[in-house]
Design goal:
Elements: E1 8-11, E2 17-20, E3 32-36, E4 44-47, E5 53-57, H1 63-87, E6 98-101, E7 106-114, E8 119-122, E9 127-132, H2 137-167, E10 173-177, E11 184-186, E12 191-195, H3 203-215, H4 224-233, H5 237-245
Parallel strand pairs: 1-3, 3-5, 7-9, 10-12
Antiparallel strand pairs: 1-2, 4-5, 6-7, 8-9, 11-12
Helix pairs in contact: 2-3, 3-5
């Protein structure tokens, strides 16, 4: 456990970066970030792929309260951060040499090119050609995330329609998101929201998540009747749910720069 304190970056709901000096001292700990979220109801902390620690803060919480929260959980976070970094050091890459989508069981080699417009071209020979106006991590991330969203829009939509037909539960529409903490959700209006990061997960895990959300069309809760319906449609839901909880380890760092 490090005794020094670090400077953290807070991001508001409007993605306007704020600098909060939560920690100060001679030793600084890089990779700690604070994000202000209007959706958050309480302080929370999670360790992202590659070992980056993120503290999520509801609006209106003062710095002293955040400092106390971080102090209570710092030892756990630093231990978990080290474990993730050692387990999968390649995920810290911001300019990946390759991209693998577990849902499709496909991999692409990545080549970088200078160009006026930021874009990604997927060649038939299994190469992603990333074009950016400047060789920065931010532009590379933007290009790859845009490409990921296009791929997800096609394949997640097709699979959700297929699963809905199999289980006999309909939905109103599909919405794709890029979220840091949720894999999916279902609204009372019948909108299924799916995280595009599901593209990095295995097919059976994604199918379970889709069943999970579709079952909320019958039960907007997690009651016994809800879980009985889930189990009737996916007998191995417990193991798949546990795998989904660990699914963030498959999400590369460029998705959330």
């Amino acid at each position: 456990m490090r005794s020094g304190r670090a400077r953290a970056t807070a991001t508001a709901a409007g993605d306007n970066p704020l600098q909060l000096t939560l920690w100060s001292g001679r030793e600084q700990s890089p990779g700690w970030h604070v994000r202000i979220s209007r959706r958050a109801r309480r302080l929370s902390m999670r360790v992202l792929p590659g070992g980056r620690v993120e503290v999520v803060v509801p609006p209106g919480i003062g710095i002293p309260a955040i400092e106390r929260f971080v102090s209570r959980h710092r030892e756990w976070a630093e231990k978990r951060s080290s474990e993730l970094f050692l387990r999968a050091p390649q995920v810290v890459e911001r300019r990946p040499e390759a991209v693998t989508l577990g849902l499709l069981d496909r991999s692409w080699r990545v080549e970088y090119h200078a160009g006026r417009r930021t874009r990604v071209d997927a060649a038939e020979d299994g190469v992603l050609h990333v074009h950016t106006s400047a060789p920065t991590d931010r532009l590379v991330s933007q290009a790859l995330v845009r490409w990921l969203g296009e791929v997800a829009a096609t394949h997640l939509a097709e699979r959700l329609e297929q699963v809905a037909g199999e289980v006999g539960i309909d939905y109103a529409r599909l919405q794709l998101r890029r979220q840091r903490t949720r894999w999916g959700s279902c609204s009372t209006a019948g909108t299924i929201s799916l995280n595009m990061c599901l593209m990095f997960q295995q097919p059976l895990v994604v199918r379970y998540l889709m069943i999970h959300e579709l079952c909320h069309r019958r039960h907007m809760n997690h009651s016994r009747r809800y879980w009985a319906l889930v189990e009737s449609l996916e007998a191995h839901w417990r193991a798949l749910d546990a795998e989904l909880l660990k699914g963030w380890r498959h999400v590369p760092a460029w998705v959330f720069p």
